[in-house]
Amino acid sequence: MTVHFIGAGPGAVDLLTIRARDLIAASPVCLYAGSLVPPEMLELCPPDARTVDTALMTLAEIVDEMVRAHEHGLDVARLASGDPSVFSAMAEQMRRLDAAGVPYDVTPGVPAYAAAAATLKRELTVPTVAQTVTLTRIAARATPMPEGESLEALGTAGGTLVLHLAVHRIDEVVKELAPSYGADCPAAVVAYASREHEIVLRGRLDDIAHAVHEAGIQRTAVIIVGPALAAEQFPDSHLYSDTRCRA
């Protein structure tokens, strides 16, 4: 018996990896966050599978479900939106499974920021414009940020900044980033990336908050800030240069 932590991707079922699809189809128990994982993804589960919406459950209740499945010799598909390596709360679940002696593995998924960049048709790392991507959030209604990882501090590094779990505080985001990025810095918000009801907003730091409020976006969105979003005049990369030695 194994608990399979599975990256469920940004929402579109056809963005699941083949491994993820097969593990879901073979697991008699499926734990998922109903607020993030679309119902059609559950159609991949076995017909008689036990499906558990964890959206309103505590950590202890979620782990109890996994341990109970282990005691009955049942594999568990634990779906995490996006990729489990980022903001999935996987580490705290693994810690408790280790203590309980329950085996687990991890299957990666398409992260929300990658789906958002695809929708925007933008590379987040553009030669001489931005070669660093910072993935972060803000501390509102969540655990505190570590020392030195405030949004204001991270903004001074430049590059492309991607914020998860922060669109409900878009005004605060703009206020903290404007001093380092500038009010005219390109910004975008993509809500429900890859889904049929996807919402895409493009603008600048000085007008993106208004657009978010007008659209009524309060959750399930990625904020991207940085000059790479509007880069047009930049040198070709060295990767495919005809001056590069290929011997």
TrEMBL record:
Phylogenetic placement of the source organism: Bacteria, Bacillati, Actinomycetota, Actinomycetes, Pseudonocardiales
InterPro entries tied to this protein: 4pyrrol_Mease, 4pyrrol_Methylase_sf, 4pyrrole_Mease_sub1, 4pyrrole_Mease_sub2, Cbl_synth_CobM/CibF, Siro_Cobalamin_biosynth, Uropor_MeTrfase_CS
UniProt domain Tetrapyrrole methylase: residue ranges: 2-208
Similarity section: Belongs to the precorrin methyltransferase family.
Protein name in the entry: Precorrin-4 C(11)-methyltransferase
Pathway(s) annotated for this protein in UniProt: Cofactor biosynthesis; adenosylcobalamin biosynthesis
Key words, A-Z: Cobalamin biosynthesis, Methyltransferase, S-adenosyl-L-methionine, Transferase
Highest taxon above the source species: Bacteria
